[in-house]
């Protein structure tokens, strides 16, 4: 995981789940203490734990109300939202 | 027996030996209407409803008047002068019942059939007029229907005309569309297109409240058109009973101004995104999942859907409504929000969610705005951002424009009394207070002199001019911003 995981660095992040991901996690949000430092790796970490059906490349990430790239460098206290594709109409 | 036909009516020859008296009536297209020469007429019917009403009327008349034979035929489509628009024939044992029944039928058919008429004059077409409304006296005007929103400062006559000139395409006639469509129509959007190939299924009804169970098995696009056409006559509806696909997307989308995405397919969403970018049209998107949904408006120039999803999600990667389930009020709410976005776009109200996506959770009514950003290498949204200009009306004039007028004019002061300040400001021929029969008197007066209507803020004068123009006035103006207007 290279740079995204630095020994000893731990971030407290609020994670919010939208739509199908909320159902798969069984929660709307949670506070996480993690050593993964970008959205993509946090997603992979949580996905392995909770069995998300979508891969990180199929999901979009927003931090503090703004879309970001999967490798965005997170900071302490950030609010991270996982947004899966939604097509219902 | 009742019939609707788009072919010229050939009066039937009754064959009924028990009837001794036959009375027939032919309604034909006349060359003049309200003093204006008519070129041709168009009739449009809600087929199924008109068939049901017409059949019930003819059968009812047979029972009521003891007829031996009865038939009524209504023509639809384009009719030339002199053609038969409606034909009625009644046969009874004696003539009296036949006469009575024939008169009864033409009155009732005019009164009850859901049929619309449009007159084409040399100088352009009239509005669609509901025959039912016409027969009950007095034509419905836009000011009657839209009064409560025209009075809003954000709308006014200019905003109402902007809506009336708008062409809005709604793709999909499912849950989102079922709430977007009636509010778009009710607000006075002049032309609405509906794209939907599917037939109504029982499992649609819990969230698609525009329909009823009697429509099961019928075309949803047509059902939706019928439902919104009932609202008022100031609407044109174009129905596309086909699925949006690469072969038809550009053809269908190109003639419209704004597109509303009410589909549940990723491929359709991306097609709309690309076509709307190509033709420079705003796209109002929404999608739902169980008790959540999102809405976003994509403007020409982006950020667009491909900026958000550089790799297109494939259909089936997440559950659809069918698999995941959905609470009916979710598309209901999001669809109404889409209608609100369309109206704001058309009115030039800038506060639309054009650079963000709004996530809505109905569990706790939480909403979250996520700012979207444009990708420099996006293949889709490389057109320049188009600024939406607010509507300008030729009949709303500034004091500077008035001072350029060479034609003499009368200033009509709607403030309740005539004060000297309007005369000094504008240099008109004379100032008068609002006459007693405001609309009728001004309609007469403008035939001989140009009228400039003024009030404090220009709103009341704008409303009155809008009404006068609806009644075919030609020489009336409103002072923009009113007499209290200060240049900023
Ligand atoms: Zn783009």
Supply database-style keywords:
heterodimer, A: alpha+beta, Ubiquitin-like (UB roll), five-stranded mixed β-sheet, 5 strands, 28% strand, B: 488 residues, alpha/beta, Aldehyde Oxidoreductase, domain 3, Rossmann fold, Oxidized Rhodanese, domain 1, five-stranded antiparallel β-sheet, 16 helices, flat, binds zinc ion
Give a written overview of the molecule.
The complex is a heterodimer of chains A (89) and B (488). Chain A is an alpha+beta fold and 89 residues long. Chain A has a single domain, classed as Roll (Ubiquitin-like (UB roll)). In chain A, 21% of the residues lie in helices and 28% in strands. Chain A has helices at 19-25, 39-50, and strands spanning 11-17, 29-34, 60-63, 66-68, 79-83. A five-stranded mixed beta sheet of chain A has the order 2-1-5-3-4. Chain A is globular, with a radius of gyration of 12 Å. Helix content of chain B is 33%, strand content 25%. Chain B has 16 helices and 22 strands. Chain B folds into three domains: 2-129, Aldehyde Oxidoreductase, domain 3 (Alpha-Beta Complex), CATH 3.90.1170.40; 157-371, 3-Layer(aba) Sandwich (Rossmann fold), CATH 3.40.50; 396-479, Rhodanese-like domain (Oxidized Rhodanese, domain 1). Chain B is flat and about 85 Å long. In chain B, helix 1 runs antiparallel to helix 2 (95-112), helix 6 packs parallel to helix 7 (220-229) and helix 6 packs across helix 12 (329-347). Chain B has helices at 47-65, 95-112, 131-135, 142-150, 156-164, 175-186, 220-229, 249-253, 266-279, 305-308, 321-324, 329-347, 399-404, 420-426, 438-445, 459-470, and strands spanning 2-5, 21-28, 32-33, 36-45, 69-75, 77-80, 84-92, 115-121, 124-130, 167-171, 191-195, 236-240, 258-261, 283-289, 292-298, 356-361, 366-371, 396-397, 409-413, 430-433, 450-454, 476-479. The mean pLDDT of chain B is 88. Chain B is α/β, with parallel strands linked by helices. Chains A and B meet through helix 1 of A and helix 6, strand 14, strand 15, strand 16 and strand 17 of B. Bound molecules: zinc ion (ZN).
């Amino acid at each position: 995981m290279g740079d995204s995981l630095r020994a000893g660095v731990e971030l407290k992040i609020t994670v919010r789940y939208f739509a199908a991901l909320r159902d798969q996690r069984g929660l709307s949000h949670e506070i996480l203490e993690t050593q993964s430092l970008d959205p993509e790796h946090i997603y992979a970490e949580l996905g392995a734990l909770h069995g998300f059906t979508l891969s990180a490349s199929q999901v979009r990430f927003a931090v503090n109300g703004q879309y970001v790239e999967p490798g965005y460098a997170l900071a302490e206290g950030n609010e991270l939202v996982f947004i899966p594709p939604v097509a219902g109409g | 027996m009742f019939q609707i036909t788009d072919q010229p009516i050939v009066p039937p020859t009754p064959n009924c030996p028990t009837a001794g008296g036959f009375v027939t009536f032919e309604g034909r297209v006349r060359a003049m209407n309200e003093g204006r020469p008519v070129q041709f007429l168009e009739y449009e019917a809600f087929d199924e409803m008109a068939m049901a009403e017409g059949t019930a009327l003819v059968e009812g008349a047979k029972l009521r008047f003891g007829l031996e034979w009865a038939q009524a035929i209504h023509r639809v489509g384009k009719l030339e002068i002199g053609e038969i628009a409606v034909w009625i024939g009644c046969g009874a044992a004696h003539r009296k019942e036949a006469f009575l029944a024939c008169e009864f039928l033409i009155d009732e058919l005019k009164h009850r059939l859901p049929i619309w008429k449009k007159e084409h004059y040399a100088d352009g077409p009239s509005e669609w007029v509901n025959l039912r409304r016409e027969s009950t006296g007095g034509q419905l005007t836009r000011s009657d229907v839209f009064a409560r929103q025209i009075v809003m400062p954000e709308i006014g006559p200019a905003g109402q005309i902007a809506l009336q000139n708008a062409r809005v395409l709604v793709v999909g006639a499912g849950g989102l569309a079922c709430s977007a469509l009636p509010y778009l129509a009710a607000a006075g959007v002049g032309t609405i297109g509906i794209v939907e190939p599917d037939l109504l299924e029982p499992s649609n009804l819990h969230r698609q409240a525009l329909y009823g169970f009697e429509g099961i098995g019928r075309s949803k696009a047509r059902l939706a058109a019928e439902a919104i056409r009932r609202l008022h006559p100031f609407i044109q509806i174009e129905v596309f009973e086909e699925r949006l696909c690469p072969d038809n997307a550009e053809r269908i989308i190109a003639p419209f101004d704004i597109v509303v995405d009410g589909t549940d397919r990723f491929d359709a969403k991306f097609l709309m995104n690309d076509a709307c970018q190509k033709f420079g049209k705003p796209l109002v998107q929404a999608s739902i999942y169980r008790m959540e949904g999102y809405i976003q408006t994509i403007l020409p120039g982006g950020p667009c859907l491909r900026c958000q999803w550089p790799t297109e999600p494939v259909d089936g990667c997440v559950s659809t409504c069918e698999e995941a389930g959905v609470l009916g009020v979710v598309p209901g709410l999001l669809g109404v929000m889409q209608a609100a976005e369309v109206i704001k776009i058309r009115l030039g109200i800038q506060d639309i969610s054009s650079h963000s996506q709004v996530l809505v959770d109905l569990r706790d009514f939480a909403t979250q705005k996520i700012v979207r950003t444009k990708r420099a290498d996006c293949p889709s949204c490389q057109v320049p951002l188009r600024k939406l200009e607010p509507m300008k009306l030729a009949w709303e004039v500034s004091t500077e424009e008035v001072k350029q007028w060479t034609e003499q004019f009368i200033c009509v002061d709607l403030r309740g009394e005539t004060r000297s300040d309007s005369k000094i400001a504008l240099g008109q021929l004379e100032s008068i207070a609002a006459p007693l029969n405001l609309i009728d008197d001004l309609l007469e007066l403008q035939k001989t002199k140009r009228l400039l209507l003024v009030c404090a803020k220009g709103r009341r004068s704008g409303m009155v001019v809008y009404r006068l123009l609806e009644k075919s006035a030609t020489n009336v103006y409103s002072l923009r911003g009113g007499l209290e207007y200060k240049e900023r």
